[in-house]
Amino acid sequence: MLKLAILVFILCAPTFAGTLVIGVLTANMALDSAAPILIAAALGVLAAFPASWWIARAILRNQEPRRHGA
């Protein structure tokens, strides 16, 4: 499950981080520093950890055993 969670994390982390960064940029276009952007990106990566674990668990639970020979 860890390998699948890592693969899902590779997709989720930039998606979450990018979404939050775009949200910060559209909410306040006159930012004087990069701190809010970096914080949003870090929060997106942190949010991707439990999300990727949950998604990997859901994928593995929904798999049916393969039937051989039919």
Give the C-alpha Rg: 17 Å
Overall mean confidence score, pLDDT: 89
Low-confidence stretches: none
What distance lies between the first and last C-alpha atoms, to the nearest angstrom? 28 Å
The secondary-structure element order is HH
Q: How many β-strand stretches?
A: 0
In terms of DSSP E residues, the strand content is: under 5%
How would you characterize the overall build of this protein?
This protein is an all-alpha fold and 70 residues long. It has one domain (2-60). The protein is 76% helix and 0% strand. It has 2 helices and no strands. The protein has helices spanning 2-27, 35-61. Helix 1 (2-27) runs antiparallel to helix 2. The longest helix is centred in the C-terminal third of the chain and has 27 residues, at 35-61. The radius of gyration is 17 Å and the shape is rod-shaped.
